[in-house]
Design brief:
CATH topology: Rossmann fold
CATH architecture: 3-Layer(aba) Sandwich
Largest sheet: 6 strands, mixed
Distance between the termini: 23 Å
Order of helices and strands: EEEHEEHEHHHEHEHEE
Number of helices: 7
Radius of gyration: 17 Å
Strand order of the largest sheet: 6-7-8-3-9-10
Strand content: 25-35%
Shape: globular
Structural class: alpha/beta
């Protein structure tokens, strides 16, 4: 099996918002299976745009993006949605939990949308919530929990279907430093447990320190790509 999970070839993304903005400029990148990668850079450097392109939420103006060898431009809307639903877990800075659903229901919903039975979905969701330390919060609504707990639910939801790739957009951006540290440690522990490839968009040095590889972006280009640390056995 190819050890590359994501490959970008000369990808350019241009937005027309009154003026021509190059969000990404002839960017090429390879991400291997099992890597933990921090995408760093100031606001407007292209980090979030890159994340949206990798998961198919947006399309490049030029160039090609491959996920597990498949050119994303060859997929129609339904196929792109199915790819995210079955292959790519996404963690948002704002959690994006449904307020009227319990922790268990929020996590199980992903599996229900894949066509799994309620019994199977609930059992797997409970198992995943136990992995993130929330077995005592199964029936609670998001508004009844702290920001850190809501982010743990979001992590459980993103990983409940064992995706080969997890994308996290500023996962600690709305959390205090102590809670953010615990969330980062949780992500790395889950990476060790499940072998999921993780790409984290961040401007937080602490977040980057938890990743094996650090990619720094500026003006839509990669200006530095370095192995930050090796995974400990």
């Amino acid at each position: 099996m190819n050890d590359l999970i994501v490959r970008l070839e000369n990808v350019t993304k241009i937005y027309h918002t009154g003026e021509k903005v190059h969000a990404l400029d002839q960017l090429s990148l390879e991400i291997k299976r099992g890597e933990t990668v921090a995408l760093m850079g100031v606001s407007g450097s292209g980090k979030s745009t890159l994340l949206n392109l990798i998961c198919g939420l947006d399309v490049p103006t030029e160039g090609h993006i491959y996920f597990e060898g498949v050119d994303l431009s060859s997929l129609n809307d339904n196929e792109s949605t199915r790819l995210r639903r079955e292959k790519i877990g996404i963690i948002f800075q704002t959690f994006n939990l449904l307020p009227t659903l319990s922790a268990l229901e929020n996590v199980a919903l992903t599996l229900r949308l894949q066509g799994n039975s309620k019994k199977k979905s609930d059992a797997r969701a409970k198992e995943m919530l136990e992995c993130v330390g929330l077995s005592h919060r199964l029936s609670h609504l998001p508004d009844e929990m702290s920001g850190g707990e809501r982010q743990r639910i979001a992590i459980a939801r993103a990983l409940v279907f064992n995706p080969p790739l997890l994308l996290a957009d500023e996962p600690t951006g709305n959390l205090d430093s102590q809670t953010g540290e615990s969330i980062l440690e949780l992500l790395i522990n889950l990476h060790r447990q499940f072998g999921t490839t993780i790409v984290i968009v961040t401007h937080n040095e602490l977040a980057a320190a938890h990743c094996q590889r650090r990619i720094t972006m500026r003006d839509g280009r990669i200006v530095k790509d370095e192995v930050h640390r090796q995974e400990q056995p």
